[in-house]
Amino acid sequence: MPELNPTEHTVDELEDELQEIDDQAVLRDAYEAEQSGDDRSSAKEAIRRRLDEVAEGEPQPKADGSGDGENDQSDESDENDEGNESSSNGGETADIMSIKDSVRNVATELIGHELDGVTELRRVDDGWEGVVEVVERPSVPDTQDILGSYEIQLDDGGTVTGYRRVDRYRRADTDREEQV
Predict the structure, then answer these.
(1) Which of 18, 25, 91, 148, CA to CA, is 20 to 30 A from 57?
(2) Sheet strand arrangement including 146-154
(3) What span, in angstroms and rounded, lies between the C-alpha atoms of 87 and 120?
(4) Are the beta carbons of 8 and 34 closer than 8 angstroms?
(5) Rounded mean pLDDT of the chain?
(6) Tens of pLDDT along 147-177?
């Protein structure tokens, strides 16, 4: 059982509890527990926000993949890390975390609806593609929300070059995943 079990708290209580946690491993465990438990998007978003806050306070890796020297891992880990695209060209390419932040920061303004979450990020030939879900029409209960899935294209540096809606569905539409 994780140190913090988010399913035992309302989202408001969870946000208060999260402010006391500075350990990224504990936060990741809490995220996984929420995902496998209640799977509330607002709770997962609160945990992601706290993870980002904690990560910003930690020494950030340099563009070449090295850290501040205190907790550096061996160079072997960089060679085995296929997701770290920034180390191959001297830092001109944004890393996946900065792409996630770019997508998260621009999605609401670009699309004009509240962001529900970033569901996918992938490297493509000419940059990055991210998929986000936005609440196009909120409803009560929220299981009846109409969500839109949007693909956002970014160049190698993380600048948005385009977007398009790829799907629209009710939040509670479980048949949708079976059809994919």
Answers:
(1) 91
(2) 114-124, 127-137, 146-154, 160-170
(3) 21
(4) no
(5) 76
(6) 999 999 998 888 889 999 999 999 888 776 5
Gap between the terminal Cα atoms of the chain: 33
Per the confidence metrics, is the pTM higher than 0.70? no
CA–CA dist 119, 172 (Å, integer)? 16
Q: Please give the Cα distance from 77 to 27 (Å, whole number).
A: 23
Is 150:107 a contact under the CB 8 Å cutoff?
yes
Q: What is the pLDDT of residues 13-49, one digit of tens each?
A: 888 888 888 888 888 888 888 878 777 877 888 888 8
Hey, what long-range contacts does 1-4 have (CB within 8 A, 24 or more apart)?
1/33, 2/26, 2/29, 2/30, 2/32, 2/33, 3/29, 3/30, 4/29, 4/30, 4/33
Which two structure tokens, joined as six digits, stand for 95? Answer: 């890393």
Nearest CA to 158 out of 89, 80, 83, 105 is that of 105
Exposure b/e, 8-22, CB count within 10 A at least 16 = b: ebebeebbebbeebe
Angstrom distance (rounded) from CA 166 to CA 119: 13
